[in-house]
Amino acid sequence: MTATPMTTPVTTPAPAGAAAPDATGGASRWRRTRGWALGALALGLALGAAIWTTGGGQEYSGPLDPGNPGPEGAQALARVLDDEGVDVSVVRSAAELEETRVARRTTVVVTSTHYLSPGMLERLRDHAAPGRLVLVDPPYPLVQEIDRDQTTMPVSADEVDAACDRPLAGIALEGLSIEVDDATAYVGTGCFPAGGGSVAVADRDADVVLFGAGQALSNDQVLRADNAAVALRLLGNDRRLVWYVPDPTDADADEAVTLESLLPDWIGPALWMVALAGIGLVLWRFRRLGPLSTEPLPVVVRAVETTRSRGRMYRKSRDRAHAAQGLRSATCAALAARLRLDRGADAHTVAEAAARHLGRPVGEIDALLLGDHQPPPATDQELIRLAQGLTRLRREVRRG
Q1: What is the pLDDT, as a whole number, of residue 153?
Q2: Rounded distance, CA 184 to CA 71, Å?
Q3: Could you tell me the residue ranges of all domains in the chain?
Q4: What's the pTM?
Q5: How many H-runs (helices) and E-runs (strands) does the chain carry?
Q6: Buried b (16+ CB within 10 A) or exposed e, 78-115
């Protein structure tokens, strides 16, 4: 038997310094993605720096909000009260207010009182009964819920002195004055008389204070006159201040503001009267439609008949000059459209373009289209020759 020799594959060693294929592919992929990775890292660092510099805090923009640093906010007053040693607690929901304890030496102030519903007001008065309740700029419906004999009057409070007969709910305001752009006065004995009422009054039980000069608490008007002193005495008379900013969602489901609740009671009967009056007007002015009537249509005249009729009129009047001008104008318009010129191009511009297109002298085509220094056609034969020349020019441009 003859043994078959075994062959061993020979492996050629890789040249020195050559990288493995997978290593080369990984390096190229890293170079491609390196820019995106660095960009994402820079964006993350920028977002983190922005969050860290802002402190993650939330700013509020509502009027007389203790967290609003804008002109209409009351952040300055809240910070001054806190610096003066008053324990200021800001609550922004009815549930949070229910969890906040109100003791004897506690003042509860409510801004954004237009969000208070009757049910919310009743619960608020019960919860704040151990202390003092201050309502800032309460609207008329809310004032009526407190006292049916009470009303509101818009006044201008420019440098109004206190003129208090006695301390307002235990708060001494005598000798001070307020100055705001607009205010509301309430009927009854109180402080800062204006417009037949007083800007600050207390109810019969002296547990609710109505303060109609809310602008005196704002950041941009707190330093006018004695506004700052009035605000500090009104809200800082006790050791603790609960600042309640109502939310529209605090109202009960049956007290939520709807379109029907905003409409007056007489709107329903009034709408019914308008509907009945409209129906009566329709019945009064109603007319029955009669049978359809036919009318003769205008006579339809074909375009070729109109052209022939106009030609006969020109021939009968022997106005060959007018007819020649009409032929030249029609030819210029057709050539301008064919040569892609502006619709308002003059005859000389059309002649130059046609001469370039056909390779003919400009003067020859200019004389045909303009007819300068030439008398108008004197006979029908001359008019026919002009029409034939213009037709020939249009045909040459179309074929060129």
Answers
A1: 85
A2: 20
A3: 75-252, 304-399
A4: 0.51
A5: 13, 11
A6: bebbeeeebebbbbbebeebeebebeeebbbbbbbbeb
pLDDT (0 to 100) of residue 47? 59
DSSP character for 171? B
Q: Which two tokens stand for residue 123?
A: 């619960």
CA–CA distances in Å: residue 127 to residues 21, 78, 243 = 78, 22, 14
- Bridge partners, 186 (sequence order): 152, 198
What lies within 8 Å, CB to CB, of 178 at 6+ separation is: 157, 159, 160, 192, 199, 213, 216, 225, 226, 227, 230
CA nearest neighbour of 339 among 353, 321, 320: 353
Contact 257, 247 (CB under 8 A): no
Q: Which of 166, 101, 102, 88 has its CA nearest to residue 133?
A: 102
Res 254 pLDDT > 50: yes
Which residues of 188-326 form beta strands (DSSP E)? Answer: 190-194, 197-202, 208-211, 240-244
Closest CA to 253 of 66, 84, 74, 120: 120
Bridge-based pairing of strands 160-161 and 132-136 is unpaired
**CA–CA distances in Å: residue 179 to residues 132, 199, 212:** 24, 11, 12
What residue type is assigned to position 155 of the chain?
Answer: V
Q: Cα dist. 345→6, 209, 324, 333, 369 in Å?
A: 95, 84, 19, 8, 13
Q: Are strands 183-186 and 152-155 parallel, antiparallel or unpaired?
A: antiparallel
Burial class (CB in 10 A: 0-12, 13-18, 19+), 357: middle
* DSSP character at residue 238: S
Residue closest to 115 by CA, chosen among 93, 147, 131: 93
Neighbours of 359 (CB within 10 A): 7
pLDDT above 90: percentage of residues in the chain: 8
For the segment 144-165, the average pLDDT, to the nearest whole number, is 82
Q: How confident is the model at residue 243 (pLDDT cuts 50, 70, 90)?
A: very high
Neighbour count for residue 158 (Cβ, 10 Å): 14
pLDDT digit string (tens) for 270-304? 899 999 999 988 888 776 666 777 777 677 778 77
DSSP 308-326: HHHHHHHHHHT-HHHHHHH
Residue 126 token pair = 């019960």
State whether the Cα torsion 238-241-242-246 is positive or negative: positive
Inter-helix orientation angle 320-338/347-358, to 10°:
60
Beta strands of 26-155 (E only): which ranges? 87-91, 106-110, 132-136, 152-155
